[in-house]
Specification:
The chain is α+β, with helices and mostly antiparallel strands. It folds into three domains: 145 residues, no CATH class; 79 residues; 132 residues, Heat Shock Protein 90 (2-Layer Sandwich), CATH 3.30.565.10. Helices cover 72% and strands 10% of the residues. The chain has eleven helices and five strands. The chain has a five-stranded mixed β-sheet with strand order 1-2-3-5-4. Helix 1 packs antiparallel against helix 6, helix 4 runs parallel beside helix 6 and helix 9 packs antiparallel against helix 10. It starts with a helix and ends with a helix.
């Protein structure tokens, strides 16, 4: 848009400079060719067409050297030459400018054109060249500003993503600390209060036996024992409930994956789509994942490990796959392999689930697949 505005002004000044000249075929041709050349410069986008338009501008200046009616419209060509001038071609542009100056002097001496026309053309040529250089600098500054704006936007988006990651990480750390604290409280209650209540129950039962010949005293001790047993049952229920809430499936699996990641090791991708899994299922899947990752990292030589844990309407599912070249991890230690797979199978089948492990069908690598029914898992609690 800036170029079109500049060229409109330059063209109007060129027409004003040509005022007073005899309108003939050469002047009309000069006007038409000048407009066509400068329009081609705006339409040229590719490198090949750009070179063609640049050559047309040079040809117009050369024509102005030999044909005086081309002189008044030469500033249009000089404007286009100045916009495309490069350091490696600056001498060509200067040579064309010097030739045009000599053409103006020659036309002035030969009285080919009026002195007024030549003076206006000279002034307009300098103004058009400076205007073109100024507009080119303005366009470069605009491009630089757009580039800076894009870089700032990219940095802002990257910072937002990093802030989200940090916030998620902070939430994860808080959740992990909360779960660890719940587990610690559950252990403390179980080890201190639970043992003390068990001891009080045994002591009360012993006193009831000692005073068996005193029915009233024995009945009082029986009531005390019943109260202590009820308190013990409530403490055990609270401890189990607190321990269950301390075992979060997503946090446990992500913690295991984070511990297994290393700089030179395989890339581990994890996706957990399960919520509020019972503690026994959480512990089972955690043990299975820990053993599967250990086998894969030690024996499979995999580059990528994928872990997916999903909650379905009637069961929980854990799938661990890798792209290792060796389809039978730990093939060199069959005993250890048997113990590892056997341990995973026992844990899953103890909850009424299904466990399979073996090479991936139709692809390289190893696959561990475990499912545990919800109802069986809940009853096992």
């Amino acid at each position: 848009m800036n170029r079109l505005f500049d060229k409109s002004i330059v063209l109007a000044c060129c027409i004003a400079a040509a005022t007073g000249l005899a309108v003939d075929a050469r002047l009309v041709a000069a006007f038409c060719l000048g407009v066509i050349a400068t329009s081609l410069a705006e339409l040229a986008q590719k490198e090949r067409t750009s070179r063609t338009s640049e050559a047309a501008s040079y040809a117009y200046i050369i024509a102005a050297v030999f044909v005086p009616p081309f002189v008044p419209f030469a500033p249009l060509a000089l404007y286009d030459i100045a916009r495309r001038v490069r350091r490696e071609r600056v001498w060509v542009a200067l040579g064309i400018g010097v030739a045009f100056v000599f053409a103006l002097v020659a036309d002035l001496r030969a009285d080919a054109l009026a002195a007024r026309t030549l003076l206006l053309t000279a002034i307009l040529s300098v103004a058009a060249t400076l205007l073109s250089l100024r507009t080119a600098q303005l366009e470069r500054e605009q491009q630089r500003m757009r580039r800076i704006r894009d870089e700032l936007q990219e940095r802002a988006l990257a910072l937002e993503a990093r802030n989200r990651d940090l916030a998620d990480r902070q939430d994860y750390e808080v959740e992990l600390a909360t779960l660890a604290e719940r587990a610690r409280i559950a252990r403390e209650i179980h080890d201190s209060v639970g043992h003390q209540l068990t001891r009080a129950s045994l002591q009360t039962e012993a006193l009831r036996v000692v005073h068996a010949d005193e029915p009233r005293v024995a009945a009082d001790f029986a009531d005390v024992k019943h109260t202590v047993d009820e308190a013990l049952q409530l403490v055990r229920a609270s401890v189990h409930a607190l321990n269950d809430t301390a075992a979060d499936l997503s946090v446990q699996l992500e913690c295991i994956v984070e511990g297994a990641c290393s700089d030179g090791g395989p890339q581990i991708e994890i996706e957990v789509l399960a919520e509020h899994a019972p503690a026994n299922i959480t512990n089972c899947f955690a043990a299975v994942l820990r053993e599967a990752l250990s086998n894969t990292i030690r024996h499979a030589h995999a580059k990528t490990i994928t872990v997916r844990c999903m909650e379905h309407p009637s069961f929980y599912q854990l799938i661990v796959t890798d792209d290792g070249a060796d389809a039978t991890p730990a093939s060199s230690s069959n005993v250890a392999e048997g113990m590892g797979l056997g341990s995973m199978r026992e844990r899953v089948e103890a909850l009424g689930g299904t466990f399979t492990a073996g090479p991936r069908a139709g692809a390289g690598g190893w696959r561990v697949f475990a499912t545990v029914p919800k109802q069986q898992g809940d009853e096992a609690r």
